Amino acid sequence: MKKSLRRSLTAVALLAVTALGLTACASSGDVSGSNNKSSGSSGSITIGSANFPESQLLAEIYAQALEGKGYKVTRNFNIGSREVYLKALKDGSIDLIPEYTGNTLNYYVAQNGTTSDATDPDQIYADLKKNLPKELTVLDKSAAEDKDSLVVTKETADKYKLKSIEDLKPVAGDLIMGAGPEFETRKAGLVGLKDIYGIVFKSMTTLDAGGPLTVNAVKDGSVDVGDIFSTDPAIEENHFVTLTDPKNVFTPQNVVPLGTKAKLKGKAVDALNAVSKSLTTDKLKSMMKEISIDKADIDTVAKKYLKDN
Protein backbone atom coordinates (compact mmCIF):
# COMPACT_ATOMS: atom_id res chain seq x y z
CA MET A 1 0.00 0.00 0.00
CA LYS A 2 2.84 2.41 0.93
CA LYS A 3 4.78 1.50 -2.23
CA SER A 4 1.66 2.14 -4.31
CA LEU A 5 1.14 5.54 -2.65
CA ARG A 6 4.82 6.44 -3.13
CA ARG A 7 4.63 5.58 -6.86
CA SER A 8 1.49 7.71 -7.21
CA LEU A 9 3.11 10.72 -5.54
CA THR A 10 6.22 10.35 -7.72
CA ALA A 11 4.07 10.29 -10.87
CA VAL A 12 2.22 13.44 -9.77
CA ALA A 13 5.52 15.19 -9.11
CA LEU A 14 6.86 14.25 -12.53
CA LEU A 15 3.70 15.52 -14.18
CA ALA A 16 3.99 18.80 -12.28
CA VAL A 17 7.64 19.22 -13.34
CA THR A 18 6.77 18.41 -16.95
CA ALA A 19 3.87 20.88 -16.90
CA LEU A 20 6.10 23.56 -15.40
CA GLY A 21 8.68 22.93 -18.10
CA LEU A 22 6.06 23.23 -20.84
CA THR A 23 4.71 26.42 -19.29
CA ALA A 24 8.22 27.90 -19.19
CA CYS A 25 8.76 27.01 -22.84
CA ALA A 26 5.44 28.58 -23.79
CA SER A 27 6.23 31.72 -21.80
CA SER A 28 9.63 31.97 -23.43
CA GLY A 29 8.00 31.78 -26.86
CA ASP A 30 5.44 34.47 -25.93
CA VAL A 31 8.13 36.86 -24.76
CA SER A 32 10.11 36.63 -27.98
CA GLY A 33 6.94 37.05 -29.98
CA SER A 34 5.88 40.06 -27.93
CA ASN A 35 8.70 42.09 -29.50
CA ASN A 36 6.22 42.72 -32.29
CA LYS A 37 3.99 44.71 -29.95
CA SER A 38 5.75 47.25 -27.79
CA SER A 39 7.66 44.98 -25.38
CA GLY A 40 10.13 47.76 -24.64
CA SER A 41 13.14 45.44 -24.92
CA SER A 42 14.85 47.88 -27.29
CA GLY A 43 13.94 51.06 -25.41
CA SER A 44 11.14 53.60 -25.56
CA ILE A 45 10.21 56.28 -28.11
CA THR A 46 7.44 58.90 -28.07
CA ILE A 47 6.09 59.66 -31.53
CA GLY A 48 4.14 62.79 -32.40
CA SER A 49 2.10 63.83 -35.41
CA ALA A 50 0.67 66.99 -36.90
CA ASN A 51 -3.04 67.74 -36.87
CA PHE A 52 -4.03 66.11 -40.15
CA PRO A 53 -4.73 62.48 -41.14
CA GLU A 54 -1.71 61.84 -43.35
CA SER A 55 0.71 62.83 -40.61
CA GLN A 56 -1.15 60.58 -38.19
CA LEU A 57 -0.97 57.71 -40.70
CA LEU A 58 2.78 58.11 -41.18
CA ALA A 59 3.31 58.37 -37.42
CA GLU A 60 1.33 55.16 -36.93
CA ILE A 61 3.41 53.36 -39.58
CA TYR A 62 6.56 54.50 -37.78
CA ALA A 63 5.09 53.39 -34.45
CA GLN A 64 4.21 49.89 -35.63
CA ALA A 65 7.55 49.48 -37.41
CA LEU A 66 9.38 50.38 -34.18
CA GLU A 67 7.16 48.11 -32.11
CA GLY A 68 8.15 45.33 -34.49
CA LYS A 69 11.75 45.93 -33.42
CA GLY A 70 10.93 45.71 -29.73
CA TYR A 71 10.47 49.39 -28.85
CA LYS A 72 7.89 50.60 -26.39
CA VAL A 73 6.09 53.33 -28.29
CA THR A 74 4.04 56.17 -26.81
CA ARG A 75 1.75 57.90 -29.30
CA ASN A 76 1.21 61.65 -28.94
CA PHE A 77 -0.68 62.38 -32.14
CA ASN A 78 -2.58 65.41 -33.45
CA ILE A 79 -0.34 67.91 -31.65
CA GLY A 80 -0.97 70.83 -33.99
CA SER A 81 0.94 72.76 -36.64
CA ARG A 82 4.68 72.65 -37.35
CA GLU A 83 5.26 75.67 -35.17
CA VAL A 84 3.85 73.70 -32.23
CA TYR A 85 5.18 70.17 -32.73
CA LEU A 86 8.75 71.18 -33.52
CA LYS A 87 8.86 72.96 -30.16
CA ALA A 88 7.65 69.69 -28.60
CA LEU A 89 10.51 67.90 -30.34
CA LYS A 90 12.98 70.44 -29.03
CA ASP A 91 11.76 70.32 -25.42
CA GLY A 92 11.70 66.51 -25.36
CA SER A 93 7.92 66.06 -25.22
CA ILE A 94 8.29 63.86 -28.31
CA ASP A 95 11.28 62.03 -29.82
CA LEU A 96 10.17 61.51 -33.43
CA ILE A 97 7.74 62.92 -35.99
CA PRO A 98 7.13 62.39 -39.72
CA GLU A 99 8.08 65.54 -41.60
CA TYR A 100 8.29 67.05 -45.08
CA THR A 101 11.67 68.25 -46.30
CA GLY A 102 10.90 71.56 -48.01
CA ASN A 103 8.63 73.11 -45.39
CA THR A 104 10.82 71.90 -42.54
CA LEU A 105 13.80 73.53 -44.22
CA ASN A 106 11.80 76.78 -44.56
CA TYR A 107 11.03 76.65 -40.84
CA TYR A 108 14.63 76.20 -39.70
CA VAL A 109 16.03 78.68 -42.20
CA ALA A 110 13.68 81.29 -40.73
CA GLN A 111 14.66 80.26 -37.20
CA ASN A 112 18.39 80.41 -37.94
CA GLY A 113 18.37 83.54 -40.09
CA THR A 114 20.06 81.58 -42.90
CA THR A 115 19.04 81.23 -46.54
CA SER A 116 18.38 78.46 -49.03
CA ASP A 117 17.28 78.78 -52.64
CA ALA A 118 17.21 75.02 -53.19
CA THR A 119 14.47 73.58 -55.40
CA ASP A 120 16.07 70.19 -56.10
CA PRO A 121 14.88 67.44 -53.69
CA ASP A 122 18.42 66.26 -52.86
CA GLN A 123 19.72 69.79 -52.26
CA ILE A 124 16.72 70.60 -50.05
CA TYR A 125 17.47 67.46 -48.01
CA ALA A 126 21.15 68.44 -47.73
CA ASP A 127 20.29 72.01 -46.67
CA LEU A 128 17.79 70.68 -44.14
CA LYS A 129 20.49 68.58 -42.48
CA LYS A 130 22.76 71.64 -42.26
CA ASN A 131 20.07 73.78 -40.63
CA LEU A 132 18.81 71.35 -38.00
CA PRO A 133 19.44 72.01 -34.29
CA LYS A 134 22.43 69.97 -33.12
CA GLU A 135 20.30 67.58 -31.06
CA LEU A 136 18.09 66.59 -34.01
CA THR A 137 18.61 64.40 -37.06
CA VAL A 138 16.75 63.36 -40.19
CA LEU A 139 16.96 59.81 -41.47
CA ASP A 140 16.63 58.70 -45.09
CA LYS A 141 14.06 60.63 -47.13
CA SER A 142 11.42 58.65 -48.97
CA ALA A 143 10.37 58.99 -52.60
CA ALA A 144 6.88 59.83 -51.30
CA GLU A 145 5.99 63.48 -51.59
CA ASP A 146 3.03 65.54 -50.46
CA LYS A 147 2.93 69.28 -50.79
CA ASP A 148 0.52 72.20 -50.54
CA SER A 149 -1.38 72.80 -53.75
CA LEU A 150 -3.80 75.52 -54.80
CA VAL A 151 -7.04 74.10 -56.15
CA VAL A 152 -10.20 75.59 -57.65
CA THR A 153 -13.43 74.16 -59.00
CA LYS A 154 -13.66 73.55 -62.74
CA GLU A 155 -16.21 76.37 -62.92
CA THR A 156 -13.79 78.84 -61.30
CA ALA A 157 -10.94 77.66 -63.53
CA ASP A 158 -13.08 78.17 -66.64
CA LYS A 159 -14.45 81.55 -65.49
CA TYR A 160 -11.04 83.08 -64.83
CA LYS A 161 -9.03 80.97 -67.31
CA LEU A 162 -6.87 79.51 -64.54
CA LYS A 163 -4.24 76.86 -65.28
CA SER A 164 -1.29 77.97 -63.16
CA ILE A 165 -0.74 79.98 -60.00
CA GLU A 166 0.59 82.77 -62.22
CA ASP A 167 -2.88 83.14 -63.74
CA LEU A 168 -4.24 84.21 -60.34
CA LYS A 169 -2.32 87.49 -60.24
CA PRO A 170 -4.71 89.69 -62.26
CA VAL A 171 -7.85 88.31 -60.58
CA ALA A 172 -6.72 87.51 -57.01
CA GLY A 173 -8.09 90.83 -55.71
CA ASP A 174 -11.59 89.49 -56.38
CA LEU A 175 -10.98 86.03 -54.88
CA ILE A 176 -11.16 84.55 -51.40
CA MET A 177 -8.43 82.14 -50.29
CA GLY A 178 -9.16 79.29 -47.88
CA ALA A 179 -6.47 77.56 -45.80
CA GLY A 180 -5.24 76.69 -42.32
CA PRO A 181 -4.19 79.58 -40.03
CA GLU A 182 -0.46 78.96 -40.50
CA PHE A 183 -0.80 79.54 -44.28
CA GLU A 184 -1.08 83.26 -43.62
CA THR A 185 2.48 83.64 -42.31
CA ARG A 186 4.43 80.92 -44.13
CA LYS A 187 6.72 81.20 -47.12
CA ALA A 188 4.77 78.26 -48.54
CA GLY A 189 1.64 80.37 -48.15
CA LEU A 190 0.52 83.97 -48.52
CA VAL A 191 4.02 85.34 -47.90
CA GLY A 192 5.54 83.34 -50.74
CA LEU A 193 2.58 83.92 -53.07
CA LYS A 194 3.05 87.67 -52.66
CA ASP A 195 6.86 87.68 -52.85
CA ILE A 196 7.23 85.18 -55.69
CA TYR A 197 4.06 85.68 -57.76
CA GLY A 198 2.85 89.12 -56.68
CA ILE A 199 -0.51 87.64 -55.64
CA VAL A 200 -2.67 89.34 -53.02
CA PHE A 201 -6.11 87.88 -52.39
CA LYS A 202 -9.22 89.86 -51.47
CA SER A 203 -9.22 88.02 -48.15
CA MET A 204 -8.36 84.72 -46.52
CA THR A 205 -10.82 82.53 -44.66
CA THR A 206 -9.17 80.52 -41.88
CA LEU A 207 -10.18 76.87 -42.14
CA ASP A 208 -8.24 73.65 -41.49
CA ALA A 209 -4.89 72.48 -42.89
CA GLY A 210 -6.05 70.96 -46.15
CA GLY A 211 -8.83 69.05 -44.42
CA PRO A 212 -12.59 68.61 -44.90
CA LEU A 213 -13.42 72.22 -43.99
CA THR A 214 -11.23 73.49 -46.82
CA VAL A 215 -12.51 70.86 -49.26
CA ASN A 216 -16.15 71.71 -48.49
CA ALA A 217 -15.52 75.46 -48.67
CA VAL A 218 -14.05 75.12 -52.17
CA LYS A 219 -16.87 72.82 -53.20
CA ASP A 220 -19.70 75.06 -51.96
CA GLY A 221 -18.07 78.29 -53.16
CA SER A 222 -17.43 79.80 -49.71
CA VAL A 223 -13.85 80.28 -50.90
CA ASP A 224 -12.58 80.52 -54.46
CA VAL A 225 -9.14 78.98 -53.95
CA GLY A 226 -8.19 76.30 -51.43
CA ASP A 227 -4.90 75.00 -50.09
CA ILE A 228 -5.22 71.21 -50.21
CA PHE A 229 -2.44 68.64 -49.88
CA SER A 230 -1.48 67.09 -53.19
CA THR A 231 -2.06 63.48 -52.06
CA ASP A 232 -5.61 64.20 -50.89
CA PRO A 233 -8.09 61.97 -52.78
CA ALA A 234 -10.69 64.74 -52.42
CA ILE A 235 -9.02 66.57 -55.33
CA GLU A 236 -9.84 63.81 -57.78
CA GLU A 237 -13.11 62.90 -56.04
CA ASN A 238 -14.46 66.46 -56.49
CA HIS A 239 -12.85 67.09 -59.90
CA PHE A 240 -10.92 70.08 -58.57
CA VAL A 241 -8.35 71.73 -60.82
CA THR A 242 -4.83 71.89 -59.34
CA LEU A 243 -2.98 75.01 -60.45
CA THR A 244 0.58 74.38 -61.60
CA ASP A 245 3.41 76.05 -59.69
CA PRO A 246 6.08 77.11 -62.26
CA LYS A 247 8.01 79.27 -59.77
CA ASN A 248 8.08 76.64 -57.00
CA VAL A 249 6.47 78.54 -54.16
CA PHE A 250 5.72 75.04 -52.90
CA THR A 251 9.11 73.31 -52.90
CA PRO A 252 9.63 69.49 -52.97
CA GLN A 253 8.25 67.88 -49.83
CA ASN A 254 9.65 64.38 -49.41
CA VAL A 255 8.45 62.47 -46.34
CA VAL A 256 11.28 62.03 -43.83
CA PRO A 257 11.62 60.88 -40.20
CA LEU A 258 12.79 63.73 -37.97
CA GLY A 259 13.82 63.07 -34.40
CA THR A 260 16.34 63.34 -31.61
CA LYS A 261 19.82 61.87 -31.99
CA ALA A 262 19.47 60.43 -28.49
CA LYS A 263 16.63 58.15 -29.59
CA LEU A 264 17.23 57.55 -33.30
CA LYS A 265 20.02 55.00 -33.30
CA GLY A 266 20.58 51.30 -33.94
CA LYS A 267 17.47 49.28 -34.71
CA ALA A 268 15.28 52.40 -34.73
CA VAL A 269 17.26 53.79 -37.66
CA ASP A 270 17.01 50.49 -39.54
CA ALA A 271 13.25 50.24 -39.01
CA LEU A 272 12.51 53.82 -40.06
CA ASN A 273 14.85 53.78 -43.06
CA ALA A 274 13.12 50.59 -44.24
CA VAL A 275 9.80 52.45 -44.18
CA SER A 276 11.29 55.35 -46.17
CA LYS A 277 12.77 52.96 -48.72
CA SER A 278 9.39 51.37 -49.47
CA LEU A 279 7.20 54.50 -49.36
CA THR A 280 6.13 56.14 -52.64
CA THR A 281 3.69 58.89 -53.53
CA ASP A 282 1.33 56.40 -55.19
CA LYS A 283 1.30 54.19 -52.09
CA LEU A 284 0.64 57.22 -49.91
CA LYS A 285 -2.24 58.33 -52.14
CA SER A 286 -3.71 54.83 -52.05
CA MET A 287 -3.59 54.71 -48.24
CA MET A 288 -5.12 58.17 -47.95
CA LYS A 289 -7.99 57.06 -50.19
CA GLU A 290 -8.61 54.13 -47.84
CA ILE A 291 -8.77 56.53 -44.89
CA SER A 292 -10.57 59.53 -46.40
CA ILE A 293 -12.95 57.88 -48.86
CA ASP A 294 -13.33 54.29 -47.64
CA LYS A 295 -13.24 55.35 -43.96
CA ALA A 296 -10.71 52.70 -42.92
CA ASP A 297 -9.02 52.99 -39.51
CA ILE A 298 -5.54 54.50 -39.59
CA ASP A 299 -4.00 51.71 -37.49
CA THR A 300 -5.50 49.05 -39.79
CA VAL A 301 -4.16 50.78 -42.91
CA ALA A 302 -0.70 51.13 -41.30
CA LYS A 303 -0.64 47.47 -40.28
CA LYS A 304 -1.58 46.33 -43.80
CA TYR A 305 1.06 48.59 -45.33
CA LEU A 306 3.84 47.14 -43.19
CA LYS A 307 2.65 43.60 -43.89
CA ASP A 308 2.66 44.19 -47.66
CA ASN A 309 5.97 46.05 -47.75
TrEMBL record:
Keyword Transferase attached: no
Single Gene Ontology MF annotation: transmembrane transporter activity
Source taxon at top rank: Bacteria
InterPro entries in UniProt: ABC_Gly_betaine_transp_sub-bd (IPR007210)
Keywords: Signal
Signal peptide: 1-26
Gene Ontology cellular component list: ATP-binding cassette (ABC) transporter complex
Domain ABC-type glycine betaine transport system substrate-binding: 44-307
Name of the molecule in the record: Osmoprotectant transport system substrate-binding protein
Source lineage: Bacteria, Bacillati, Actinomycetota, Actinomycetes, Geodermatophilales
